[in-house]
Fold this sequence. Notes:
The structure holds 2 protein chains of 2 kinds. Chain A is an alpha+beta fold. Chain A has helices spanning 13-16, 19-41, 85-89, 130-134, 160-167; strands spanning 68-70, 95-101, 113-121, 140-142, 157-158.
Amino acid sequence: xxTIIVKRPQLAWHEKAFISTLVKGLKITLGHAIKTLSQxxxxxxxxxxxxxxxxxxxxxxxxxxxxxxxxTDEQDRERCVSCQLCEFICPPKAIKITPGEIxxxxxxxxxxxxxxxxxxxxxxxxxxxxxxEVCPEQAIYLRKDYAITGLSRKEMVHNKQRLYEIxxxxxxxxxxxxxxx
Amino acid sequence: xAAFFANIDLTFLIVSLVKIVGFTFAAVLxxxxxxxxxxRRFSAVIQDRVGPNRVGVPLTLLGFKKDVQILGIGGLFQxxxxxxxxxxxxxxxxxxxxxxxxxxxxxxxxxxxxxTCAVLPFGSxxxxxxxxxxxxxxxxxxxxxVGPLYTFAIASLGVYGIVLxxxxxxxxxxxxxxxxxxxxxxxxELSLGLSIIPVFMVFGEMNLPKITQFQDAHGWLIxxxxxxxxxxxxxxxxxxxxxxxxxxxxxxxAETNRLPFDLAECETELVGGYHTEYxxxxxxxxxxxxxxxxxxxxxxxxTLFLGGWSIPFAPVLGLDFKEGATPxxxxxxxxxxxxxxxxxxxxxxxxxxxxxxxxxxxxxxKFGWLFMFEAALxxxxxxxxxxxxxxxx
Lengths: 181, 393
């Protein structure tokens, strides 16, 4: 193997005595200070985004993983068929599904199952996106909501109604239950 | 007994008391909070951040809609908020400590730092003739003839606070920190004292107010740009004075345990250093002592080398000090000039802190004993030799 002998820079006496290097260092720090200060005075700080006033939302990437939510299809049918795959795969065990049967007089009776209750504990959720990955019905999605707050533990558990509120409607995708097919 | 009380000059007593309370508690302690704010803000802009910019006068607590930001600059109340936080925190004394010394140590750090204020001339003279005072009031608490000696004597007591803190905590990290710190302070005390001997040789004086008056009339020691300062002698003596200034500043950094000499509380090795076991206001007292020492150090450097309260080009502008005939506005202007210079020096302290990495301990001791000490001694000799041909007065 080729051996490379790194040549150490030859320091001049003023560099060894920290004189010119000190000046250089002070120049760098002072330069940054003046630059940032003028940006702040001009009310256009380039580096720090001042969070609550100025939000990150428009810069969120497409693949951003925020709060998981349930979606309905174009006919307002709940996509979730309560197969419980997400419940089983969820690493922190944040999801709790109570499966329910769809009554036979329902127009979607052929789907057979839908969740009676669907709870995601947002204190436990780690936003990993496994539920979205595993869902065969593409019923659960990670949205871009990131500021999930609450005053009690109870408030931090998203129930079914809340999940559909966040998720909303999503069209296209899986069409196997539709008449169109 | 009655005669004894009759002999007490009541006016002098009251004036001194006002000066003590005014300078120590209304100037230096608030300056500590200003320093903390500056430290945070300046370090932020150096690192391309914004820094604390939200805390204002908390009017929302009283039911108002918005907090008031003083002068439109956000965050000026941050230091006050920090102070309140320290007071409200739990003051915890661990079981294994030596309680008496544990409580004594923070006091021993703050008190010497504040005591040294006594000899600093923070202004020229204040003419209070409209209040019925015949003599103008000198803007210095104690007009001592051995001012700097007093400062060094008291300031070196500060090391006891640190030693006691480390020892009384009965814990390894604080102990190591305090041992380091005391070794460092003792070795740099020597060069601190020696570095300004040339200054006293040049002035032939150890009275700080008189030193400042001389600089006001004849040009600052480091910037002799007016009056007699433009003579060849002063500019040749400028070389040892500059060396003296640099040595003094370096020793001052080490003395106040600031970076690049802050081995006493080097977080990566010693957790927090000598104040690891301290909490709440006791911890804040260490903090205050450190910053007060920094302010006094800057004050001393400004007084000795940068003309103290004197305004640049004072004789040219007609703003110079005339004994007994200084109007009140000029006296106040001189005070403002002093505090502006001290603030400038503190900003320099902060800039250095955020620019340089810290020394290793052996490097620090080697630098102190093998370079600073010798350089200071040689500088005394150099000044003495130069003064044979170029006496100042």
